[in-house]
Design a protein that fits this description.
- This protein is of the alpha+beta class.
- The chain folds into two domains: 2-82, no CATH class; 87-125, no CATH class.
- Helix content is 33%, strand content 27%.
- The chain has helices at 10-22, 33-41, 87-98, 118-125; strands spanning 2-4, 30-32, 49-57, 62-70, 73-82.
- The protein has a three-stranded antiparallel beta sheet with strand order 3-4-5, with helices on one face.
- The chain is globular, with a radius of gyration of 19 Å.
- 9% of the residues are buried.
Length: 126
């Protein structure tokens, strides 16, 4: 079982399947990441028809998907996201917030990369 983003198109799934076969996998089954997250979290309900909003902050992306559980199946109804908002962007926003001056003025970070910050290293470890 390989998880893929909900936004993956057919050519991306085909490329992933070929890579898995080259790595020695005989049979490749795909599961969309929002569905995998819901199942891992314990998405279960007694209701015949339930909707969940699943969101994912990736390393560089933010994705959200509406998933539906109906008659024993779970599927993605709709999804969207921002390919330029994600983990490193959130880390950088926290670093800027954490390093504000006592007077409420922002500290300048010219030339500093978020990954070089001690706070960023602590965030990655957490």
């Amino acid at each position: 079982m390989i998880t893929v983003p909900a936004a993956f198109e057919l050519h991306q799934c085909d490329a992933t399947r070929k890579a898995a076969e080259l790595a020695g996998f005989v049979q490749v089954l795909f599961l969309q990441e929002p569905v995998a997250a819901a199942l891992a979290y314990g998405f279960q309900t007694d209701s015949d028809r339930t909707f969940w909003l699943v969101y994912d902050f990736g390393g560089g992306t933010f994705d959200a998907a509406v998933i539906k559980s109906e008659e024993g199946t779970v599927r993605v109804v709709n999804h969207g996201g921002d390919n330029f908002l994600g983990g490193s962007d959130i880390d950088w926003a926290l670093i800027k917030r954490d390093h504000s001056s006592p007077a409420g003025q922002r500290v300048r970070y010219e030339g500093v990369q978020p990954r070089q910050s001690p706070l960023a290293r602590r965030l990655r470890k957490a």
